Every structure is written in structure tokens, then in C-alpha cells.
Amino acid sequence: xxxxxxxxxxxxxxxxxxxxxxxxxxxxxxxxxxxxxxxxxxxxxxxxxxxxxxxxxxxxxxxxxxxxxxxxxxxxxxxxxxxxxxxxxxxxxxxxxxxxxxxxxxxxxxxxxxxxxxxxxxx
Length: 123
Hints:
It is a single chain. By secondary structure, the chain is α/β, with parallel strands linked by helices. The chain has a single domain, classed as Transcription Regulator spoIIAA. The chain has helices at about 25-40, 60-70, 90-100, 115-120; strands at about 5, 15-20, 45-55, 80-85, 105-110. The chain is globular. The N and C termini lie far apart (about 30 Å).
């Protein structure tokens, strides 16, 4: 499975790690399970670690995924830090994701440093 979800106990963040090639269906499954976990634990802070993601999904998939989240999320005050590697293949997709989410009222920001991403989430 090219993704995993961690519910952190030391801070109120849900982390989803993506790796390799991630198809549209895998992407939706990962996000759906993340939203379910967020509801169960009443969390609105998310860390998406895309540093090992190679792609596999399209810009169109991301566009409609943001609409899916808008419809499924119980809170529109969600905050997501997206962690990318410096030369990540997925950088263009992550920048598109940041803009698409912003246009729907979500607070999403790209980071290259894990600690800064977590600090921003907790701020």
C-alpha cells in the first residue's frame, strides 16, 4: 500500500505518508480513511508527507479530491501541512493542491522541513 496513516499521541496531528505511485483510487481511499480517523478523534490538523511520492494521479484527480473533502469534512477549519522533498517529482502537483485547497477555504501550506511543518500546524 503506497500510503499509511498515523494518529500522533504527542500532538493532535494526523499524518498521512504517501510513497511511490499513488493511483486516483488509492488517493481517495487514503483521504477517506484520514477523514474517518479525524472524525473519530475530533482532529483538524493534518500532515501530508509527500516526500517519497512519485505521482501516479493527475491534476484533475486533485481538483475533484478537494471537492470531495469539502463535502466530507465535518469542519472547514482544517489545516494541512504538506511535506515535500527538495527535488520531488510531485512538487507541481503539491503546488496545485495548495492553490486548489486555498480556493475552497482550506488552510494548506507546503514545507520542506518536517519540524517547521509541525510547528506551523500547532501554531
